[in-house]
Amino acid sequence: MDTYQINIKGIVQGVGFRPFIWTLFNKFNIAGFVTNTTEGVYIEANFENFNQVQKIINLINEKKPEPAVIEQINFKKINTKEFNDFKISKSFETKEKFQLISPDLGICNKCKDEIINKNNKRRYFYPFTNCTNCGPRFTIIKMMPYDRINTTMSKFKMCSQCSKEYTNPLDRRFHAQPNACKNCGPQVILIDNNSNVINDLNPLNTAAKLLKKGKIIGIKSLGGFQIACSAISDNAVKKLRKRKKRKTKPFAIMVKNYKEAKKYFYISKKEQYLLISSKAPIVLLKKKNTNSSLKPLSYYVSFNNKYEGVMLPYTPLHCLLFELLDIPLIMTSGNISEEPIASENDEAITKLKEICDYFLINNRDIYSKYDDSVTKIIKNNEMVIRRARGYAPYPIKLDIDIKDNFIFASGAQDKNTFCILTKNYGIVSQHIGDLDTKETLDFYKNSLNTYKQLFSIEEFKLISHDLHPDYLSTIFAKSEFPKVKKLPIQHHLAHAASVIAENNLLNELSNNTQMICFAWDGSGLGLDNNIWGSEVFLIGKNLKFKRVACLKEKLLPGGQISIKKPYRMSIVYLLEYFFKNPINRFPKTSKKNLKNTEVKNTEVIDNNYFYDFLIKNFSYYKKIVSKKEIDLLISQIKTSYNSTITTSMGRFFDAVSSILNINHFSTYEGEAAINLEMCADEKTISSKKEYKIIINTKSKDLKLTEFNQKLKRTASYNSILINNITSNISTSNKLSNNYTESKNLNTFNNCSYNTDPIYEIDDFYIFNQIIEDLFKKVNISIISAKFHNTIAKIILKICLELKNNFNSNIVLLSGGVFQNNILL
User: DSSP E strands: which ranges in 20-104?
Assistant: First the structure.
């Protein structure tokens, strides 16, 4: 017999991998042992010959547990050892300590059957039932390797029956680290918002009755607290909105099963797969017009949104609640608006007592906070909107390899995630949220420390951060790692690079092939110190970027306040229309005052005339904006006081939403654009009706087809030079030394930049046509559809032009604008 060692790397801990190996090797009477290490799963065993080794490795790949992900299997012959049988041995540390970690897994069907089986005395209605195929993973792990002693379950000593399951190789709970039953495991209790225990032998039964009565309950789930209430009660939903200070942002809901979900929503096969998968994310589904026999969802769950965020029960506790309920529930994050999800009992009671009437709490600690993931299916492909439970920390496999170095990317300000690069992995953190509060920043720091500990990171070789100096993620990167070299990256270049990384497109770039990227969002600090957001790039070898197009520059009056108040951007566009249409801009009542007066385009705008024009033609603005604010806006636009130049596509959508009287205020990011999308007429979209477009160039003599010649005369600039990072970390450090923070960003990372785009998309021209349609009384749903078609046409027009001139066959779309279903 020959002895071989086998090293298996990937997500192979916490997914029933050792029990699987034990069963497989015993089936073929192979003696040896299997164990967890700090880098994966390690096997030593005796084989008859090399062919038997190959056969076993093939079977490991073919028959592995479903949640497992095998990245690599290495084997080699070692000095012969004698083994009498095959065992699971105690875990040990190896020289290499990097190990991928399993995300949390939704409840499996076998555990689901057990908890509703009255004959199963230990697990009937036990809300912490799990096995090697399901249950908590990342949220309870304190350190690797993944053994019970290294999790928050260590304080619960297994009873004799659980211990017997845990040590029985034929049991599906063989080495299931969170294994427990009602005799030895965590317990649930129901309390009111004053921390008084509700004296009831069945807290879930009482909680279900309270939910039916319209009460709001905080539920401690896998990665933190959720807030639940009836989704069919207007009063309950309105009460939750008022208490949570969540005016209009849609809530996610949970329904009993797939069969129930089909009654309310259209569900494709791909959407069904996601709903019932072990990831169990929130899936955005299109609403049906429900029949009268079905209890309708409250209008206040998501108002006029055509889609609903839907999930199925993914923990035993959720499943048991729905055994007692026949109504859908709102299941939203247990937090105060913009703060991280609460995960500890005392924390939840303190922070959420003004929101929740009752709490279902338990004594199983959560080590890592994890919110629910949000995803949707577009053209039969999954698009992740929020990556957290069930997905993170599973890495993105990259087509570069930085060996054993660690690089930290600190992320942006809003919807933050950070990323750690090592080997050929991009390990993206769970959704952190907007870095606007101390609580969120603390969550950010704690999460990073957890990742450093679990992935055995002692130091980073390089830190990258957003170009914006005031982002908390930027400030943290600079202050937390003062001695580590820094690499600032422009926001929209990062958008483009993220698509290249996620889709492993780096090798597609060559001297003769370039990619086109549309990086469209709300805002990001540009290389010219203005606010970008409608950027089109040409990307060549080594990630060389050319900024080739964007919207016309305009002022963002008052800066950030205009993001919350879309009507202010609408006023910017209306002022331009008013100024360029002097014959129509004055109301009839004021024309007598203009007798014998020549009106010129260069004339200083009269604030009173503009306000009269605004209220006469768009009467809804009378309740939205005062004459005093109009005066202030005009003053800011004329003087640029407290304002910045922007090319944001997000603000263009905001302005259109406001002029159509859809959204004048945004209570959450993207609200105006989302509601604009929701009101679009589907027939008009299909008809391809659109507005005329003008794409200007910087040269009077330059036509669209002469694009190529102009581009050759412009300077190019680079983002991160990937080959420098992969081959020599110090090269990137050298680049970083050449960066100095100043408003003059013409030199950056030792490269020359020309930020002046070749194309200029005339959004004012489109907006003016929308105004003319409003004057003609065209329905706003038709205008919205024509607007979306027009934006799509712009993308197509630019793509075709670049394709013809630059052999560009790959198009990248990135940024919040492309979460719009119609546009995408």
Answer: 32-36, 41-47, 69-78, 86-88
Q: What six digits make up the tokens of 99?
A: 């190990």
For residues 371 and 478, what is the distance between their CA atoms, to the nearest angstrom? 28
Three-state secondary structure of 630-641: HHHHHHHHHHCC
Tally helices (H) and strands (E) across the chain: 25, 33
Per the omega criterion (within 30 degrees of 0), is the bond before 393 cis? Answer: yes
Helices 438-454 + 472-480 axis angle, to 10: 50
Q: Are strands 307-311 and 381-386 parallel, antiparallel or unpaired?
A: unpaired
Residues with Cβ within 8 Å of 54's Cβ and at least 6 positions away in sequence, in order, are none
Q: What is the DSSP letter of 37?
A: B
Write the DSSP string, 379-421. Answer: TTEEEEEE--TTTTTPPEE-S---TT-EEEE---SSSB--EEE
Joined together, the tokens standing for residue 290 give 């429900």
698 by DSSP, 3-state: which?
A: coil
Q: Which helix (H) or strand (E) holds 686?
A: helix 682-687
List the structure tokens of 40: 């994966």
With 0-12 / 13-18 / 19 or more C-beta atoms within 10 angstroms meaning exposed / middle / buried, residue 221 is buried
> SS3 of 535, please?
strand
Structure tokens at 116: 């509703």
Question: Do 9 and 72 meet the contact criterion of CB atoms below 8 Å apart?
Answer: yes
Q: How far apart are CA 391 and CA 409, in angstroms?
A: 19
Closest to 544 in 3D by CA, of 343, 722, 775: 722
CA angle (671 as vertex; 773, 219 as ends), nearest 5: 155
Mean pLDDT, residues 700-709 taken together: 41
Q: How many residues does the chain have?
A: 824
Listed residue (132, 182, 140, 188) closest to 162, CA to CA: 182
Calculate Rg over the CA atoms of the chain. Answer: 30
Range in 504-508, 662-666, 667-671 with the lowest mean pLDDT: 504-508
Neighbours of 83 (CB within 10 A): 15
Dihedrals φ, ψ of 497, to 5°? -60, -35
Rounded to whole angstroms, how far apart are CA atoms 795 and 535? Answer: 11
pLDDT tens digits along 203-228 = 999 999 999 999 999 999 999 999 99
CA distance 501 to 814: 12
Note the pTM of the prediction, 2 decimals: 0.87
- For residue 173, give the nearest of 119, 111, 222, 112 by alpha carbon: 111
3-state secondary structure of 76: strand
Quick count: other Cβ atoms within 10 Å of Cβ 774?
16
Which helix (H) or strand (E) element contains residue 567? helix 566-580
Q: Give the other-Cβ count within 10 Å of 100's Cβ.
A: 21
